[in-house]
Amino acid sequence: MSEQANIIDLLAGTPPELAELRRARPDAVANAELSFTALFEPGDEKDFPQAWRYAVAVFIAGVSGQDEAARFYRDLLEDELDGRAGELGLDEAIGQGLSAGPYDTGDFVVFDLGEGPQGRALSAAFDFAHLLTFHPKDATPAAIGHLQSAGWSDDAIVSLAQLISFVAFQLRVAHGLRVLSGAVEWASPSEIVRAAGVADPSWEPGPRTLIPEVVAPARFVNHSLGWKPWLADLPKDEFTQEHKDALIQPQRIDSEYFRLLARDPAALKARTLTDIDIFYNTEGGLGRAERELAATVVSRLNGCEYCASVHQARSKEEGGDPEAIDRLLEEGVGADLGSPLWNALQKAAAALTQTPFEFSAEHVRVLREEGLDDLALIDLVNSAAFFNWANRLMLTLGEPDVPKRFR
C-alpha cells in the first residue's frame, strides 16, 4: 500500500478541493499515513504478523459499520493470504460483534476463532479490539493478562493497542471528510443494538501483568493526574537512538506512558507528530481552546479521566470558559456550555465518538451557521478523532492515579 496517495482520502473519497484544504495540516496528513505504514507494513513484524494486523482492521471496520474500510482492509488481507481470508471466520465474528457504543459499562463480547496458536491469539485480539472499540473504559489488567496468556508479547500488545486505536482515528477522519464533502446521506443507526456478551469473561492478569498501587479518581477532576501502566515500559538503558527520536521531546523519557509506547517506536513517532500538527498548527482554522474542548468532550464521553484532566486545563489556558468546562466535567456530555458555538462543537465531537458514527450533515450545518469554515471543521474532525485514538491507549494500557497532594 505504500504507493497509495493517501489512505484516509481514499477511504473518504475526498474531493480535490477538500483534500487540498486538509493539507493545511501537512504533518498530520503525512504522519497519519506513516502511522499506517508503521502499524500495517512494519520493517520487522516481530510476533504480530501482517495478516493478523489486516484481520484486526477488517474486524474493527466491520463491527463499526464502516463497510468501505472493511472492504479496503479485506482486499489487503486477501492479497496477504492468497485469497484464503475466509478461513479466519471474519464474517461470523463481525456478525457477532456488530454493536453500538460507547457503553456506559457493559458486557464483554468474546470470540472463538479456533484452537491452535493462531486461533487463540486472534480470538484474544478480537476480544481486545471489541473492548477498545465499544467500551475501553471497562478495560482492566485482566484484559492485558488475557492477551499475554494467548501468546502475545508485551511489544506486540503495545502495537496491537496502537493499531486498534489508530483505526478508530482513521475511520472517524474518513467519515468526517465524507460528511463535509456532502457524500454521506446520514441515517440514524438506531437499528444497531448492543451486542450480547458476558458480564465476566474470566480473564485474569498474568505473571507479566503489572498491578500498580493507585488511588483512582472518584470523578472527573480539574487538576492534574498521574498514570500507571499495566505493562512493563521500556527501561531507559535499553533506549536506542530510534527510541529517543520517537519521543520527539527528550524529557518524555521520564514518562512511564511514553516509555511504554516506545516499545513500538515507529508508531509512537508518527502518532506524536500527528498529534502536534492537529493541536498546535494554528494557521487558520479552529481556535486552540476549541480544539482542546473537543479533546475534553471525547475524553468525558469515553470515560478517560486522565485525558480529560489534561485537556480541560489546556482549553482554559487557551481562553476557554472555565465555568463551562467545569460543567462539562461535572455533568458530562450534554451540559450547557454557555454558547451556541461551544454547544454545537460538543454535540459534533460526541457524535463522532459514538460507534456507529453519528456525525452528520446537520452538525455541519449548525457549525457553519456559527461561523466555522471548512478548515475549522477539519480541525474539529481531526481533534475529536485523535482523542478517540489517545483515550483508547490511556484506558487500556494503564490507569489514572490521583497525586498525593490532591488526595
UniProtKB/TrEMBL annotation:
Alphabetic keyword roster: Oxidoreductase, Peroxidase
InterPro entries xref list: AhpD-like (IPR029032), AhpD_Avi7169 (IPR023923), AhpD_core (IPR004675), CHP04029_CMD-like (IPR023982), CMD-like (IPR003779), Uncharacterised_peroxidase-rel (IPR010195)
Pfam families: CMD
Domain Carboxymuconolactone decarboxylase-like residues, every copy: 265-346
Example GO molecular function: peroxiredoxin activity
PANTHER family per the UniProt record, alphabetical: CARBOXYMUCONOLACTONE DECARBOXYLASE-LIKE DOMAIN-CONTAINING PROTEIN, SI:CH211-175M2.5
Protein name (record): Alkylhydroperoxidase domain protein
